[in-house]
Each structure stands twice: as C-alpha cells, then as structure tokens.
Amino acid sequence: MPPPVLRKCFLNTRLRVKPILLTLLISNQVHLTNIFLLNIAKMVKPKVGINGFGRIGRLALRAAVEKDTVQVVAINDPFIELDYMVYMFNYDSTHGRFNGKISTSAGNLVVEKEGKATHTIKVFNLKDPAEIKWAEVGAEYVIESTGVFTTIEKASAHLKGGAKKVVISAPSADAPMYVMGVNEDKYDPAKDNVISNASCTTNCLAPLAKVINDEFGIIEGLMTTVHAVTATQKTVDGPSGKQWRDGRGAAQNIIPASTGAAKAVGKVIPELNGKLTGMAFRVPTPNVSVVDLTARLEKPASLDAIKAAVKKAAEGNLKGILGYTEDQVVSTDFLGDSRSSIFDAGACISLNPHFVKLVSWYDNEFGYSCRLVDLITHCASKA
Length: 383
Prior knowledge:
By secondary structure, the chain is an alpha/beta fold.
C-alpha cells in the first residue's frame, strides 16, 4: 500500500474550532477524516490593547491571562511608568498577589503564568488616545478603561491609531451596549466599531432579569445595588461636584447614590425598557456587591418555581454567566468569582405569587473584567 498523501485544509479559524481535513488518497479511494485541532484558540487570538491601567485595566489583564483567549499586546497609561506597572499588577490589596511572573524586557511588560500563553506587552504613556500607535503592535481591539472616553466620539480616537474596535468598560450615552448572555447576538461587526460592555451592575442584573422576564414576565421592578467602594469615592470627607453626600468618607458611611444600571437593562432587553429603575448604596467593603431586584410579575410564580428557572439557566445556556447557590453565603465568598451574577436562593423572598424580591451577588471588579475579555472574544468570532 503506498503512503498516504496528506493535504491540510485550513479554514478560517478565528476562535471557532473547525476541523483540519486530511485527504487520504489510498488505492484511488478518497477518505475524508475530520480531525479537530485542540487549543485552536491559542493559534489565532484577537490582539488587544488596554487604555488605562487602573482597577479594571489591571484586572482585565489578569482575566486575559487566566482565560487565555486573547493576546494583550499593548497598554497605555500616561500616569504609570513601566516599573510601577510591574508593582501595581503584581500586588493587589483585594485580589492578592498575581499568581505568575511579571517582568520587563526591552521596554515591554512581560506577563507569564504556568500553562498559559506569555503576554509581551508594549507600554505607551500618552494622554491623547489618537496618538497611541495601536497598529504598530497589531492591536485590533482596545479596552477603553480610563473612565474618560465613554462616548463614540471620544472613544473613536483609538481608531486613528489603527485599532479596529473599541470596547468601553463603562456605560455609554451613545455607544451600543452589549451584555454577555443577554444581547451579544445583536452585535453587528459591520457597523459596531465602538461598543460598551455596560456596567458591572447591569451585567449582574440583566441575566437575572432576562430569565425572570422570559419565564414569568416583569410588569415593573425596582433595583437596589449594595455596592462596594470604588476609586471615585473619598477616603475622608471632601468636596463633590455632583451629589454632596458622594463626597463623604467611603470607609465611614453607607452612602445612597444614583445608578443608571437598572434603566440600562432596558437598552439590552428592549421588552423591559421603562419598566425598571434603581439606586445604589455604597458601603465600606473593598469588593463584591449585591443586587436586590424587587419585581411585580405578570404570571403567578412560587419562589420554588423561580429558583428552578434560574437554576436551569445557570446550568444551561447561561452557565459561566449566571450562577446559582443555596449555601449560606456572604460577600467575601464571591471574591474572584468570574461569573456576572450569582443568584442567592436562600436570600430571596416572596410577598405573593406576583411580587418577589430576588438577590444576586457579583464581583464588581473581576467578574466584570472577565466579561470584557469574553465580549472581545465574541466580537472576534464574528470578524
């Protein structure tokens, strides 16, 4: 028998696992065998730049290393020099020391972790995003995590440097918002060059609201998020340009605050537009927040039926996005949790079959950062 002639037929495999077809020519007979290439995502990953190396920028890099589905090739921050980046990434008061190795080489940041791809990252220190040469390092996708450039016009400055797509790590007044597990299928690569990953709270609320609305219908609802402190708050009392009480000491107070997270759900789930609103209480904990959704339902539902619906979604099509627990948990139990929303079955209550209070936890830093990476991965799969 003559040796087989092998012909590799590589298809476009940008983050989609497709077979390599080996054509075996033996005795004038053609046999086609599909061999699935393992770890194909490691061959072709979207190249990512990060603008702003603050809380979300640094945790987005950690998420990128951990998930191993994107390649971070550049970071820009005008206020943080390379050596300081090493220190800030390596040591984190909330999430602990980075479980890997970080170093510098020829002016680059080098991030390594056993079993994961190495990220060799070009560092820029530019204030104007239009001047960042993303194309030089091949960065197609930019995570805009400064909190400053949150509109299409401002974030589009990254496109001038060669980026193809920009993902804003905050709500946006005009950029389309996508929440993984809820409406990412609406992403249009032909026109969506600047998009928003919405807020961490919207990422927690929207998957839960989707399940409840799909199964039972939501007539109206009020959301409260009990939210951990963020960098925008004051360590001690100081002036505030908006609400005066926003300037009160974060470590000393529970501070009522506004949030557009509930209204934003109406943008990602159009059927709920105008049906939800909410507020926040900022509390003196460093991380992990919790959403309380109080809703009036169209269809009568027992609490057990609601729990069953959420559990089914958490174990099915929303696995990895929505979680479910019946344990007697507290906030620190979710530190480092990569899911967007973890439903607390034991904390939920019902007044009657049409009026319920539902509770869901979220790591407002790391969980959200994981969704940034997932959204880019999704966008790349549509390129």
